[in-house]
Write a structure and sequence with these properties.
Number of strands: 5
Strand content: under 5%
Number of domains: 2
Structural class: mainly alpha
Family: Belongs to the BCCT transporter (TC 2.A.15) family.
Distance between the termini: 84 Å
Pfam family, one: BCCT
Strand order of the largest sheet: 4-3-2-1-5
Shape: elongated
Organism: Sphingobacterium pedocola
Protein name: Transporter
Subcellular location: Cell membrane
Number of helices: 26
CATH class of the largest domain: Mainly Alpha
């Protein structure tokens, strides 16, 4: 009986601390939005409006910081650090990598807004007072702004931070890992689970709403082509069932098969479509408008970035409903897109990652939006007599109505529907994979039924909300999650910077200065010293006895050569100083002081270092008469220490002998000496 029970045991890799609260929250919110769509959307819209009106500056500053931070990293000394160990190689070709991150990052939205957004800006009352040319320029400029570097910087920050900690530190592929330098092992506790629950819910809500609106656009296109008689709910059910089934199959097959293949097909298809519209549309106008628009974007970049429209009250509603909504939308999608980008980016350098994520998708988006958006505006002015402008309230069908003004419009419409369907599948399959990863802590060999579970839940809740009219409420809920996550992303940046500084120092640090004069003569003694961590008393004794003996011997030799030297000791803290005074130039100082060092807790618990009993140890550190950094001299023999002092004295003599350094070495002599003596009396007693 026991064997039978084991045989039928239910296997899963879900983390209960993440999956249970997430499902309760997801199902609860979706049911409320479905049962009381108007009421819930009304409450949530009031909250959203309050946040957008009163805290829009916070979105602006956060997104600006993300852009500046990533650009800094790209050009900094940290840019050559790899997302993985130093020998890591990229797992995917450059084309496949860019195709996958692009398909996950923009997806259906690129098709949905390619005509709709430029036309809506062009037709907006905010720009109605401008000349037609300026309205067209503004439409292109703000479309570039919303789909450009700022959007990809949001995705890039999450993806980069997670990829770095997952592949460099070998932490779980989970957002909790992004805060490891700040939380340390607490990421495995309650705080880590809260972050993952937040990421899972945000990902589910974002994908559900996007797929819901994608189904509506596909349905509208099929009706336009007379493939379906109407846009009734039964046809939407059929579309969802078919496409989600393909998404599940793609997710189950893994990144290297279904997702990569579909992404490569997708990016190839959209390039073909874009070239078709470019060649058959107003080609010269499109090339010229793209060039003009790119220059306009570059020139206006900083003004757009920091503009809160506070001096233009008539544009504030537009600003809230477009720019701030977009920033919130990208931020709410960033857990999903960031995790997916991280999963496919092992082996890339930080510089390569940022350059590719910020520049390539942005440039493609600009070309895409110019070709479709500017073609639509040109047709609206020169051919359609404003017919497209009058359709801006129906964005679901606007793209298909635009295609009617191109040759082979029916063929193009079929092709567009196929692309939207592939986008649907690539967004859903990567989303299913990411949600399964979050909910199971990226556990290896997760059962395939878990992907089926997430696909089914997506389909059921999307259709439920679509039928009940609750998608808008869920979309508003998704936007509200962006504000707290924006603050968390700032912490991601702090955490990443802290880790990179340590990383760079670790790999760039040369051997200790104290090891330079070593020979093999005293290797046994030095091995004992290396694995021994000294107490304060031991270091004080070393300074007062061994180092003082060396200094006194050197003082005696100086005096035999006609140079007056002083050896002085100080207490609280313990210091020993050899000084040679000069009337004109600054004094020569070579001192040794007792310095405290806090040791990593990992080292304290290491069984291979049995004599380390606490996190605090001490060592003798040099200091000089200028601001140069000192170093550890605990391993020096007496002769090596004397030799080291003489090296610094030789440096000192050569510097003061150069006429060009005369003003420098003689400046503030008395002040420097007075401050040092005052510091000695304040902080220690001379003995």
């Amino acid at each position: 009986m026991r064997l039978l029970r084991k045989k039928h045991q239910f296997k899963h890799t879900f983390d209960k601390s993440v999956i249970l609260p997430s499902l309760i929250f997801i199902v609860g919110v979706c049911l409320l939005a479905a049962l009381f769509p108007k009421l819930i959307n009304g409450y949530l819209s009031d909250i959203k409006n309050f946040v957008f009106v009163n805290l829009n500056w916070l979105y602006v500053w956060c997104v600006t910081i993300f852009v500046i931070f990533l650009v800094f990293l790209m050009f900094s000394r940290y840019g050559n650090i790899k997302l993985g160990n130093n020998e890591s190689k990229p797992e995917h070709s450059f084309f496949s990598w860019v195709s996958m991150l692009f398909a996950a990052g923009m997806g259906i939205g690129l098709m949905y807004f390619s005509v709709a957004e430029p036309m809506q800006h062009y037709s907006s009352e905010v720009f109605q007072g401008n000349h037609d040319v300026n309205r067209a320029k503004n439409a292109q400029l703000y479309t570039f702004f919303h789909w450009g570097i700022h959007a990809w910087a949001i995705y890039g920050l999450v993806g980069l931070t997670l990829a770095y900690f997952a592949y460099r530190y070998r932490l779980p592929m989970s957002l909790r890992s992004c805060l490891y330098p700040l939380l340390k092992n607490k990421i495995y506790g309650t705080w880590g689970s809260v972050i993952d629950v937040f990421a899972l819910c945000s990902t589910f809500f974002g994908i559900t709403t996007t797929l819901g609106f994608g189904v509506v656009q596909i349905n509208s296109g099929l009706v336009t082509l007379n493939i379906l008689p109407d846009a009734s709910f039964i046809y939407q059910v059929a579309i969802v069932v078919v496409l989600v089934s393909f998404s599940v199959l793609s997710a189950v097959s893994g990144v290297n098969k279904g997702i990569k293949i579909l992404s490569n097909i997708n990016i190839s298809a959209v390039i073909v479509l874009m070239l078709f519209v470019l060649c058959l549309g107003p080609t010269v106008y499109l090339i010229g408008s793209f060039t003009n628009g790119l220059g306009n974007y570059v020139n206006s970049f900083f003004d757009l970035t920091f503009n809160t429209h506070v001096y233009e009250e008539e544009t504030l509603p537009w600003f809230y409903n477009w720019t701030i909504l977009y920033w919130a939308w990208w931020i709410s999608w960033s857990p999903f897109v960031g995790i997916f980008i991280a999963r496919i980016s092992k082996g890339r350098t930080i510089k390569e990652f940022i350059a590719a994520v910020l520049i390539l998708p942005t440039l493609f988006n600009f070309i895409w939006m110019s070709v479709f958006g500017n073609s639509a505006i040109w047709f609206d002015v020169n051919v359609a007599d404003g017919a497209l402008s009058r359709l801006v309230s129906d964005p679901d069908s606007l793209l298909f109505r635009f295609l009617e003004y191109l040759p082979l419009s029916d063929l193009l419409s079929y092709f567009v529907i196929i692309i939207i369907m592939i986008f649907f599948v690539t967004s859903a399959d990567s989303g299913i994979m990411v949600m399964n990863s979050i909910s199971s802590q990226n556990a290896p060999n997760a059962p395939k039924w878990q992907n089926v579970f997430w696909g089914a839940l997506l389909a059921i809740l999307a259709l439920l909300l679509l039928n009940a009219g609750g998608l808008l409420a869920l979309q508003t809920m998704t936007l509200l999650t962006a504000l707290p996550f924006a603050v968390i992303m700032i912490l991601f940046a702090v955490s990443l910077m802290k880790a990179l500084v340590i990383d760079y120092k670790y790999y760039e640090r040369d051997v200790s200065v104290s090891t330079v004069p070593w020979s093999g003569e005293y290797w046994k003694q030095r091995l004992k010293q290396i694995v021994s961590f000294k107490t304060r008393e031991a270091v004080d004794k070393l300074i007062y006895e061994d180092i003082k003996t060396a200094f006194l011997a050197l003082k005696s030799e100086f005096e035999q050569n006609g140079i007056t030297a002083k050896v002085e000791t100080y207490d609280n803290p313990v210091r020993l100083e050899l000084a040679i005074s000069h009337d004109v130039v600054n004094d020569f100082i070579y001192g040794v002081k007792s310095e405290k060092r806090v040791v990593s807790a990992f080292l304290v618990n290491d069984e291979n270092l049995p004599d380390l009993e606490s996190k605090t140890t001490y060592f003798p550190k040099t200091y000089f008469g200028d601001s140069r950094e000192g170093y550890d001299v605990q391993y020096f023999t007496m002769n090596e220490l004397i030799s080291d002092v003489l090296k610094h004295y030789d440096r000192f003599v050569n510097i003061v002998a150069e006429e060009a350094n005369e003003m420098f070495v003689s400046s503030n002599t008395n002040e420097t000496r007075g401050n040092r003596e005052k510091g000695s009396s304040d902080h220690g007693e001379r003995s």
